[in-house]
Amino acid sequence: MRDWAHFIYLLCFIAAIMFSGWLFGRAYLVDCVTIRGHSMEPSFHEGERVWVSKVAVSRKKVNAGDVFVFRDLSDDHFLCKRCIAAPGDSILYIRSHLDTTLYSYLLYAPAKGDSLSFDAISFPRYARAIVWETGAESGFRAGYRFRHDWFYFLGDNRDHSVDSRHFGLVPDACLFGRVMGNQQDIFKRHINNNH
Fold this sequence. Notes:
By secondary structure, the protein is α+β, with helices and mostly antiparallel strands. The protein folds into 2 domains: 1-30; 35-193, Umud Fragment, subunit A. It is built from 4 helices and 11 strands. The strands form 3 sheets. A 7-stranded antiparallel β-sheet has the order 1-2-11-3-4-9-10. A two-stranded antiparallel sheet has the order 5-6. The radius of gyration is 22 Å and the shape is elongated.
């Protein structure tokens, strides 16, 4: 009888260790999320499950073209979009309609510690970021030193995507993780690596 009790105790202990490891992995290493909507088509489709690496992300590890899951500042929903500008990158933003350029400007994604100067036209592009960093509404500022790294994200299916064109830059603190691929792709890579 003692042997059975010891055996059951050992199984419970092993199960608790395995469950703790699983929780740790989900909290800090990788997670699997489901794509909602059509904004990342054709890369990822509605209902597709993708693996997300949650290992610490720094601006040195983020490249334009990487796909990330991040928290939207306005409503705490998680979004999956492609990074178009990492901290320190600039992009040319062109707004056009029916082959007519309405306006264009250069948008810089600030890196932590960057100081930018503003005029009345450029300030609104960064106002939301400054409000998020300072926690206070502010009027026009002639300049500001950023405390976080900032990113610009777009959906692959531009006509059906709400992204940085609508809500602006995204801070590093909102990044959930880098998309490593969908479940099927990761499984195929694993199989192919065993040859």
